[in-house]
Amino acid sequence: MALTITTLAERPGLQGPMWEMPDTWPAFMAEDPVGWACYAHVPAEFPEHVLIATDDGGEVVAHAFSAPFRLDAPGRGKLPGMGWDRVLLWAFADLRAGERPDTVSALDITVRTDRQGEGISGLMVQALRENVRRLGIPALVAPVRPTAKHLETGGSIEEYAARTRPDGLPHDPWLRVHARLGATVEGVAPASMTIPGTLEQWRAWTGLPFDTPGPVEVPGALVPVHCEPGRGYAVYVEPNVWVRHTV
Question: Is this prediction's pTM over 0.85?
C-alpha cells in the first residue's frame, strides 16, 4: 500500500479535500457542542498535529486529528473521565495561556469510506506516534471509540474495555489495532462526549421517533440515548477507552 502521510502544516492545500472526504460517522456524532466549538479549529490552530494520507493519485484517503495539552497541571494529573470533550478544551485553553504541552491526545482517525478495511487506520496510528516523537512531546494518548461496542449497548464500558480474546489481545477490533502497536489500556472515559438535543433534532439526526421515555437504541451509538419526551430533549453520553502509546 503506497500512501504518503504528511502534516497539514506541510501541505495546507489538502485541507479542502480533507473535509470533503466521505466517511461513515453517524450524523449525531457531529453534534457535540465541544466539537462544534473546537474541532473545526484544530487544522488552523494545530496544523502540525493534523495528518493527511494521500494515495498514488494524490487523493486524500485518511486523516488523523490530534491536539497537544499539559496533563501535569493543577486540577489535572490524570486522564479525564470526560475524555474527548475535556482534552479538546484543555488543548485550546493551554494554547491561549501559552502552556507548554507534555501530552498529545489523538482526536480521531477517519478513513475514506471506500478504503476502509485495508489497514490504513493502523498506519495512521503509527504516523501519529512518529509525529509526536518528532515534535518532542513525550506522551501520546487516545480516547478510543471502540468500534464494536455499538453491538452491545447495554454492557458496561469497563467490562468491555477489559475483555480479551484467548490470545490476550482486546476483544474490540479498534482497541486491538492499538494494542498490536504497543498501546496499553489506561482506563475509561465514561462521559467522553455529551450530545444533547431537542427531540426534533434527534429525529432529524437518526430518523427515529423519539417519543417514548427512557433509553433509545440508536444505530452507531455505543450506549442508548436517554429520551425525555415530557421535557422535549434527549441526551447521548458516549463512553470511550483511554489508551497510552509509547513514544
Answer: yes
